[in-house]
Specification:
Layout: E1 13-19, E2 25-36, E3 39-44, E4 50-54, E5 58-64
Antiparallel strand pairs: 1-2, 1-5, 2-3, 3-4
Length: about 70
């Protein structure tokens, strides 16, 4: 994924498929707060925890409508 594409997600709720550095895959709904370089700062909606995701680890994404949050 191109990190420049992440800027349009700020303030949005998106669902992602993410591969971490160990190769573990997860599917998450997140609210995007910002991005800097290759990193995306967000809140995981399932846990309410702040998270940071690497652009290279985001394998798929889909913007969700606001009424799907939570």
């Amino acid at each position: 994924m191109n990190p420049r594409d992440m800027n349009k997600w700020v303030g949005q709720v998106v669902e992602i498929i993410y591969e971490d550095k160990s190769g573990n895959l997860t599917q998450r709904r997140i609210e995007v707060h910002g991005c800097r370089g290759e990193l995306l700062r967000a809140t995981c909606l399932a846990t309410g925890s702040p998270r940071v995701f690497r652009a290279a680890g985001i394998l798929a994404w889909n913007r969700l409508k606001a009424n799907h949050a939570g």
